[in-house]
């Protein structure tokens, strides 16, 4: 069915998938995996040399002006930074869909322009030999700049709750990665949040394998230092974690090592305890004319099957039942269209006789059981609701009051009733008894998570 015909969690929002550029089918990534990126300083040099056309007005903001109004549009800036912190590279349309903010308003342009002028974000575009078309601005991309400005200028202005909502309590990473890979992952996450009954969606920064398999369930990490992460995690309402590995190439050994790492982890950590499975989404090139897509899918299946044979697990925890492969085109067969397979997250796994591939539905508890021994399996849904990287329609659920932590560290169990003597300006001795209004004092908005 067409995106516009499918039941949507945001039927009246302007940022539905039907209204966005299709980064897979619209020819955005026909060749290569990187956009053409510029920083403010780089764009100024290109213009001075006469190589590049003049930038749009909002990207010509003077750094001094941007620094003077760094606190303006504060929440909108934090929303964008939260998306970039977790997903790394997104289109402007995708950023708007995550945050439910516009892309064409003066305020939206000012936010991007200020962060660009301050060297907090870079802007990117798709290079085309015929020049930019009328809709080229829809493909504009954003990523964190490789500069220390976030830590030097913005982090000190953030409350603890704001910092957690932007970074998830982790270091803000700068610089880019593989643009095609990241944009496709973000698009898949947005479509899952719109069309599927998921509890929440997590980006790369919240998808570290050791966190998913060990520390999040109270088990120490294994020896050694692992940086392995999934590209995203879709959380089923019962708490099942569906790790997504966007697979655009298989390489000589890189993908084989990744598949074996997943197989080892899943063999060691039972589904009932961790609620963790993985799906490899094969995102080949469109219209290559040489059957490369089918070849890549076959290669991925062979390497996953080999990893399962080397790490079979035990009868009560078969690795084969937790490793899935699907082709992007099986879920999205043409531009602006989704298949019934996507509505169930239907994929294949090597569970048949002699490792034959069988179809299973990741959203069906009969095919993939709930993590029945996992402690607080669904807690992640509420915990993630305060993260600005989570699609906005998934944030409207109760979540823990993170702002209580600084109060407790300061020795307060609740917000203190601070009283000041109106004559001397000195604090009163008794700060526990409210005067005037007897209502409970609320935490300021910027301190709430």
Structure explained in plain terms:
This protein is an alpha+beta fold and 449 residues long. It has two domains: 35-167, Orthogonal Bundle (Arc Repressor Mutant, subunit A); 184-394, no CATH class. It is built from 16 helices and 13 strands. The strands form four sheets. The chain has a five-stranded mixed beta sheet, with helices on both faces. Helix 10 crosses helix 12 (292-310). It is globular, with a radius of gyration of 24 Å. It starts with 35 loop residues before the first strand and ends in a 40-residue tail after the last helix. The relative contact order is 0.12. The mean pLDDT is 86.
What is the chain-wise order of helices and strands?
EHHHEHHEEHHHEHEEHHEHEEEHHEEHH
Distance between the termini: 38 Å
- Helical run tally: 16
- Unreliable spans are none
Structural class: alpha+beta
Tell me roughly what share of residues is in helical segments: 25-40%
Compute the number of strand runs. Answer: 13
Task: Write a brief structural summary.
By secondary structure, the protein is an alpha+beta fold. The protein contains 16 helices and 13 strands. It folds into two domains: 133 residues, Arc Repressor Mutant, subunit A (Orthogonal Bundle), CATH 1.10.10; 211 residues, no CATH class.
């Amino acid at each position: 069915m067409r995106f516009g015909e499918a039941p949507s969690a945001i039927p009246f929002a302007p940022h539905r998938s039907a209204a966005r550029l299709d980064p897979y089918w619209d020819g955005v990534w026909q060749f290569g995996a990187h956009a053409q990126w510029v920083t403010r300083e780089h764009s100024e040099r290109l213009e001075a040399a006469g190589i590049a056309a003049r930038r749009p007005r909002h990207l010509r903001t003077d750094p001094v002006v941007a620094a003077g109004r760094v606190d303006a549009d504060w929440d909108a800036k934090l929303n964008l930074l939260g998306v970039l912190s977790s997903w790394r590279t997104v289109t402007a349309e995708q950023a708007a869909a995550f945050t439910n903010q516009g892309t064409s308003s003066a305020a939206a342009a000012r936010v991007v322009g200020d962060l660009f002028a301050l060297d907090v974000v870079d802007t990117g575009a798709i290079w085309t030999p015929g020049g930019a078309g009328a809709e080229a601005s829809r493909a504009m991309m954003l990523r964190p700049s490789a500069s220390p400005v976030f830590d030097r200028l913005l982090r000190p202005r953030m409350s603890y709750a704001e910092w957690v909502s932007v970074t998830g309590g982790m270091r803000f990473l700068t610089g880019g990665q593989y643009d095609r890979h990241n944009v496709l992952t973000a698009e898949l996450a947005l479509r899952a949040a719109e069309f599927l009954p998921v509890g929440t969606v997590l980006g790369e920064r919240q998808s570290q394998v050791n966190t998913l398999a060990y520390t999040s369930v109270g088990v120490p990490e294994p020896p050694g230092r692992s940086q392995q992460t999934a590209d995203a995690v879709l959380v089923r309402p019962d708490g099942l974690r569906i790790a997504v590995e966007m697979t655009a190439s298989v390489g000589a050994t890189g993908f084989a090592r990744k598949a074996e790492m997943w197989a080892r982890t899943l063999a060691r950590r039972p589904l009932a305890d961790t609620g963790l499975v993985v799906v490899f989404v094969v995102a080949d090139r469109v219209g290559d004319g040489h059957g490369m897509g089918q070849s890549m899918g076959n290669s991925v299946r062979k390497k996953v099957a080999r990893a399962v044979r080397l790490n079979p697990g035990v009868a009560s925890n078969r690795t084969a039942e937790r490793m899935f492969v699907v082709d992007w085109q099986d879920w999205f067969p043409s531009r602006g269209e989704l298949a019934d397979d996507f509505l169930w997250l239907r994929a294949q796994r090597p569970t048949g006789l002699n490792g034959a591939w069988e179809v299973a539905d990741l959203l069906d508890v009969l095919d993939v059981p709930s993590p029945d021994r996992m402690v607080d399996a669904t807690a992640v849904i509420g915990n993630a609701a305060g993260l600005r990287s989570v699609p906005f329609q998934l944030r409207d659920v109760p979540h823990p009051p993170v702002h209580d932590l600084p109060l407790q560290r300061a020795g307060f169990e609740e917000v203190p009733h601070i009283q000041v003597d109106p004559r001397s300006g000195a604090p009163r001795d008794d700060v526990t008894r409210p005067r005037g209004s007897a209502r409970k004092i609320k935490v300021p908005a910027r301190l709430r998570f």
